[in-house]
Design brief:
12 helices; single chain; Protein-Tyrosine Phosphatase, Chain A
Length: 249
């Protein structure tokens, strides 16, 4: 994070990757508005203090990217807030660990992210059909760790909002710090789960910018970039232009 950029992390007791996507500089001497779009890890385990903090943020929309099987562990307590809660399940790539070891590790993230963008394209379309609407903000989208599915949605969002790629990749890599903090919390609260997490292949837990860069390069080549990808899913140029109009200051 550059010295003149704000800290986007929102300190919570039981979520470790809750961040404001606002504040990034965009092309045309503009900047993303703060307090409009947030990304996070799991939100079902929030403390009362965490929930009070989210109420102060004025969250109107929660988009849960987890699968129904993952959501069995718990969901954001939408009944306590006047918000819209959506389960927009995207593909869970974490179960396929065989390909994350040995020679396949270098391609694991690229292949799995491409799978989310292709096989999970209907879900991606639903997510963005909601995120681009001004009345949905402030909105937060999340998965389990806030790294893969959340990382992809965040990257596409930033690219569509004309944020330079160096910032897009830097935003993705910030998750590594959050992953470390989450594991420390799990070791104290759920040591058995922490041990299972620590046994995962390193690439599954990492958020290396070069891995996301390969995926964004693929989007450039195959669809003409993030905007072209969303247009191919059925979003309109007018919707994306409106998105930029209320998100950029």
């Amino acid at each position: 994070m550059a010295p003149d950029e704000p800290d986007r992390r929102i300190p919570l007791e039981r979520a470790f990757n809750f961040r404001d996507l606002g504040g990034y500089p965009a092309r045309g001497h503009k900047r993303l508005r703060r307090g409009k779009l947030f990304r996070s890890d799991d939100l079902f385990r929030l403390s009362d203090g965490d929930l009070a903090h989210l109420a102060e943020l004025g969250i109107r929309t929660v988009i849960d990217l987890r699968t129904e099987a993952e959501a069995v562990r718990g969901r954001f307590p939408a009944e306590k807030f006047a918000i819209d809660y959506y389960q927009n399940s995207l593909i869970d790539i974490s179960a396929d660990h065989a390909q994350a070891r040995g020679d396949g590790a270098q391609d694991y993230i690229f292949l799995r992210y491409r799978q989310i963008l292709t096989e999970g394209s209907a879900g991606i379309r639903q997510v963005f059909a909601r995120l681009v609407r001004a009345e949905a903000a402030p909105a937060v989208f999340h998965c389990v760790a806030g790294k893969d599915r959340t990382g992809l949605v965040a990257a596409i969002t930033l690219e569509v909002l004309c944020v330079d790629r160096e910032h897009v990749l830097a935003d993705y890599s910030m998750t590594e710090l959050a992953m470390g903090e989450a594991l420390e919390w799990l070791e104290a609260e759920f040591p058995d789960l922490a041990r299972r997490m620590n046994d995962l292949p390193p690439v599954v837990l990492s958020a290396k910018p070069e891995n996301l860069a390969r995926v964004l390069d693929w989007l450039d080549t195959s669809h003409g970039g993030a905007e072209g990808y969303l247009l191919s899913l059925g979003l309109t140029r007018e919707e994306l232009a409106d998105f930029r109009s209320w998100m950029l200051e």
